[in-house]
Design a protein that fits this description.
Layout lengths: L1 E4 L2 H10 L2 E8 L2 E8 L1 E3 L2 E6 L3 H8 L2 E9 L5 E13 L6 H11 L7 H4 L14 E16 L2
Antiparallel strand pairs: 1-8, 2-3, 2-6, 4-5, 5-8, 6-7, 7-8
Length: 149
């Protein structure tokens, strides 16, 4: 088994090709890790969620980390770690272009809204959706790859 560092180009290719990341955030010294669906473009990972623990934590502390993994044949794998900053894209004047961009990237996949909109318990019905579009600005990224010799 040979493990090597991936180039920035290889890291961004993996981010672009993948849709699921594990997001790590923290609040008051307590960590929280959760999978999210995302779309990568222009040094940002764009995502969607209903209000909940991850949004609460990221609003309190915008510094986050994400990991994206791809399994290969046998024991082969690639992984990219991203350190970044949470930026909410609120539904108000001044953010429409960024929200529309996030929606256009995410909506390329037929089920883009499900992971962020579905909760394990029944939510009360409402005419008003409190969905949250957000992005993670990539501050740093690094990657590793393992290949069979």
């Amino acid at each position: 088994m040979h493990v090597r560092s991936m180039s920035t180009f290889e890291c961004t290719n993996l981010l672009s090709a993948s849709r699921v990341a594990c997001l790590a955030c923290s609040k008051d010294g307590k960590p929280y890790v959760v999978p999210i669906y995302y779309a990568y473009a222009d040094i940002h990972l764009y995502a969607f969620s209903m209000p909940g623990k991850k949004i609460e934590f990221m609003r309190a502390n915008p510094h986050v980390s994400l990991v994206v993994e791809e399994r290969g044949h046998g024991r082969e794998w690639q992984s990219v770690v991203v350190d970044g900053r949470f930026e909410e894209l609120p539904d108000r004047i001044g953010h429409k272009r960024e929200r529309d961009h996030a929606w256009s990237l995410l909506s390329r996949h037929f089920d883009w809204w499900e992971p962020g909109a579905l909760k394990p318990m029944t939510q009360p019905q409402s005419d008003h959706s409190e969905h949250v579009f957000f992005r993670i600005l990539v501050d740093q990224l690094s990657g590793r790859e393992a290949k069979e010799n």
